[in-house]
TrEMBL record:
<keyword id="KW-1133">Transmembrane helix</keyword>
<dbReference type="InterPro" id="IPR000917">
    <property type="entry name" value="Sulfatase_N"/>
</dbReference>
<dbReference type="InterPro" id="IPR050738">
    <property type="entry name" value="Sulfatase"/>
</dbReference>
<dbReference type="InterPro" id="IPR024607">
    <property type="entry name" value="Sulfatase_CS"/>
</dbReference>
<keyword id="KW-0106">Calcium</keyword>
<keyword id="KW-0472">Membrane</keyword>
<feature type="transmembrane region" description="Helical">
    <location>
        <begin position="197"/>
        <end position="218"/>
    </location>
</feature>
<protein>
    <recommendedName>
        <fullName>Sulfatase N-terminal domain-containing protein</fullName>
    </recommendedName>
</protein>
<dbReference type="GO" id="GO:0004065">
    <property type="term" value="F:arylsulfatase activity"/>
</dbReference>
<keyword id="KW-0812">Transmembrane</keyword>
<dbReference type="Pfam" id="PF00884">
    <property type="entry name" value="Sulfatase"/>
</dbReference>
<keyword id="KW-0378">Hydrolase</keyword>
<comment type="similarity">
    <text>Belongs to the sulfatase family.</text>
</comment>
<dbReference type="InterPro" id="IPR017850">
    <property type="entry name" value="Alkaline_phosphatase_core_sf"/>
</dbReference>
<dbReference type="GO" id="GO:0046872">
    <property type="term" value="F:metal ion binding"/>
</dbReference>
<keyword id="KW-0479">Metal-binding</keyword>
<feature type="domain" description="Sulfatase N-terminal">
    <location>
        <begin position="13"/>
        <end position="341"/>
    </location>
</feature>
Length: 383
């Protein structure tokens, strides 16, 4: 595993993982895009190792992230599905990453690391009842959590877009016809079949109306921002969210100055998954519209956090990893087609004491190896 082959000149290294959301392979400068400005991400590649064939375990969020954090195929932890929908779509879903799984954070906690996740989790929240938090990040080795227990979906934005109509464009039209049909049938049978009238009224009128109202309010239901296990925003104010992530990450890093323990900081960005959003200072600045604005804001966040790492004196003792949970979809076949667009992700890492600077590997690498690599790294450091 490539990480374990690095030359270390210090004890217990710190770890920082930046994980973008649905970032395309060719959407940053160090992988050939010269029209979207990503100087800070490019700097990681220029001063570290870049992998040109770095594969994910899945083409969508939930199974890919589960595999990444556990080093196991997602099907082994029950985080893969044969259905079309392979992710958690509702915050109230009872599924999630089992507590028995060993994550990167759990493995490092055993070695006295301080751990934090700031960003998107999307691996479940509660099990049996609201608030039990059995799938929550704090139950998977993290000391601190600030971010989204679910994900960022189109409904959270201000453009009126919906993930429901993305998959089923005529969803509301069809469901609107059902109550009309139900009312018509009820009027026809009311006098002779009152029991059937009540049943049809429930099935063909009330239930479809409830589903429509529920679907139209996904922003209120699912848009939740948490700090540890406390809800701090519902719905989430997307504008300025990246800046808040940077602030929380900086606060965590500053607290590590006084402590003697190494740290693991996991930053799974909300960018560049839809809904697209950014602060005013980045809006309209990219040549690639709102998507490009989002990429550039994320790059800014990487730069600010790395600046903090350097100012606090952590840089020479910190392994930095940047990648995406999965790649962008390929227009011809979608995310789960044969064209591998959702599977071939980007990767670059920075490790100052490394003998390999500005080094590129074209060999196939698998993202499941990151946990074993980090664990073995710590063992080799201590001899």
């Amino acid at each position: 595993i490539f990480i374990s082959k690095l030359l270390f000149s210090c004890s217990s290294p710190n770890f920082i993982i930046f994980l973008a959301d649905d970032l395309g392979y060719g959407d940053i400068g160090c992988f050939g895009n010269y029209s979207i400005k990503t100087p800070n991400i490019d700097n990681l590649a220029a001063n570290g190792l870049k992998l040109n064939h770095h594969l994910t375990a899945a083409a969508v969020c939930t199974p890919s992230r589960a595999a990444f954090l556990t080093g196991r195929y997602p099907i082994r932890s029950g985080m893969e599905s044969s259905n079309r929908n392979k992710i958690f779509f509702f915050i109230a879903a009872s599924g999630g990453l089992p507590e028995s799984e060993i994550t990167i954070a759990k493995a490092l906690k055993k070695k006295n690391y301080k751990t934090a996740i700031i960003g998107k989790w999307h691996l479940g929240n509660d099990c049996v009842k609201k608030g039990d938090g059995c799938h929550h990040p704090l139950n998977h080795g993290f000391d601190y959590f600030y971010g989204l227990p679910l994900s960022n979906i189109k409904d959270f934005g201000d453009e009126g877009e919906s993930v429901v109509t993305t998959y089923s464009p005529n969803f509301y039209s069809y469901f609107s016809l059902i109550p009309i049909l139900g009312i018509t049938l009820c009027m026809m049978i009311y006098k002779k079949h009152k029991v059937c009238f009540i049943f049809l009224g429930l099935v063909l009128v009330i239930i479809p109306i409830f589903i429509i109202i529920f679907s139209l309010n996904l922003k209120i239901i699912n848009s939740v921002l948490m700090e540890n296990k406390k809800i701090v925003e519902q719905p989430i104010r997307l504008k300025g969210l990246t800046q808040r992530f940077v602030e929380k990450a900086s606060n965590f890093l500053e607290k590590q100055i006084a402590g003697k323990s190494p740290f693991f900081l996991y930053i799974p960005f909300v960018h560049v998954h839809t809904a697209l959003f950014c602060a005013d200072e980045f809006s309209g600045k990219s040549k690639h519209g709102r998507y490009g604005d989002n990429v550039e804001e994320m790059d800014w966040a990487v730069g600010k956090i790395m600046e903090k790492v350097e100012n606090l004196g952590f840089l020479n003792n910190t392994f930095v990893y940047f990648s995406s949970d999965n790649g962008a979809h390929v227009e011809e076949r979608g995310k789960n087609g044969q064209r591998e667009g959702g599977f071939n992700g980007i990767f670059r890492e920075l490790w100052k004491p490394s003998i390999h600077l500005h080094y590129t590997r074209t060999k196939i690498e698998y993202r499941l190896d990151i946990l074993r690599a980090m664990n073995r790294t710590h063992i080799e450091v201590h001899g």
